Amino acid sequence: MVKIAIAGGSGQVAREVIDALVVAGKHDIAILSRNASTNEIIPPGVHWRAVDYSDKNGLTEALRGTHTVLSFVQLLTDPTNLSQRNLIDASIAAGVKRFAPSEYGSARTVDMPWSAGKEETRNYLRKVNENGKVLEFTLFQPGLFLDYLASPHQTAKYVAPLDTLFDFNNRRAILVEGHEDAIITFTSVADLAAVVAQAVDFEAGEWPEVSGIRGNRMTFSQVVDIGEKIRGPFTIDKVKLKDLEAGVLRTSWGLATKHRAVTEEQASDLFKTVLTGILLSSVKGAWDISDELNHMFPHYKFEEMEAFLTKAWDGKP
């Protein structure tokens, strides 16, 4: 049994991973949070620990004896990236062996300003190790959550539905003209949580710097084909690459469901930014996820998109 610290542990993705770690039954799990919760029921072997991410010394003391730190710090609430830098510094000072920053999405951050903090953290982790490894780290990257294609229906225990450019509910999608074969990866929330839990237990060597988790690697056209097979004909909006690069988004519809970390004031601008960014970044390969953990755990069977969504949409109007 080793000690695992979960930073930002009250978040939706974090809670999915915590449950998967609890099922393994091998670890002492500390949920680090700015406000330690006393109202939620947590399973045996899990406890809350209140921390101040601006207090590096306090973080160091909180991490003493910890083997692995998994960060789920919400980037939108940490715009200066100070919380994760302090968490990395404290992990090194406390003698933590392994660290995973807040990732859980795309392979690259090109054209996605809301993910800029990920790139800063990646570079910082490389910098602290440039004169010799002091902290083993990996970037868990599953692409988009397959569960989002069931929106507005919730298929995960904690992760809430979010809109994407594939709207199965209203049978429509947005594609970049001439780039219908751009690659996008979808992995279910359950698969992400299960594979991260296996990676935490991995003892046969060091973590790879990138831990790609490839549930379903598809072209945009293939996703639409599956959508039409399950839901019927889709209406397709096609946007021009040059318009997107100019910041112009000409579509008949847009995103409407905001993440809980987004304020009402941020939402309208962010909807356009996110939709434009995902379309642009997909053309540039940002969502073509590698498969390091597929190879590390070859016997793990990922949920296939068509089967997952057929079940999710069964009986839905």
Please write out the topology.
Blueprint lengths: L1 E6 L4 H13 L2 E7 L12 E5 L5 H7 L5 E4 L10 H13 L3 E3 L15 H13 L7 E2 L1 E3 L2 E2 L20 E2 L4 E5 L6 E5 L1 H13 L8 E3 L3 E4 H12 L3 E5 L1 H5 L18 H20 L8 H5 L8 H9 L4
Helix pairs in contact: 1-5, 2-3, 6-10
Task: Explain what the structure shows.
- The protein has 317 residues and is of the alpha/beta class.
- The chain contains 10 helices and 14 strands.
- The protein has 2 domains: 2-142 and 188-212, NAD(P)-binding Rossmann-like Domain (Rossmann fold); 144-187 and 216-287 and 303-313.
- 35% of the residues lie in helices and 18% in strands.
- The protein has a 6-stranded parallel sheet, with helices on both faces.
- The protein starts with a strand and ends with a helix.
Query: What name goes with the CATH superfamily of the largest domain?
Result: NAD(P)-binding Rossmann-like Domain
CATH class type of the largest domain = Alpha Beta
Question: Any idea how many domains?
Answer: 2
User: pLDDT under 50 segments (min length 5)?
Assistant: none
Number of helices: 10
What share of residues is helical? 25-40%
What is the string of helix and strand elements? EHEEHEHEHEEEEEEHEEHEHHHH
**How many β-strands, per DSSP?**
14
Name of the CATH architecture of the largest domain: 3-Layer(aba) Sandwich
**And the CATH topology of the largest domain?**
Rossmann fold
Shape: globular
The overall pLDDT average reads 94
| Protein structure class | alpha/beta
Rg from alpha-carbon coordinates: 20 Å
**Percent of residues in beta strands?**
15-25%
Largest sheet: 6 strands, parallel
Organism: Podospora didyma
Domain NmrA-like: 3-230
InterPro entries: NAD(P)-bd_dom_sf (IPR036291), NmrA-like (IPR008030), NmrA/Isoflavone_reductase-like (IPR051609)
Pfam families: NmrA
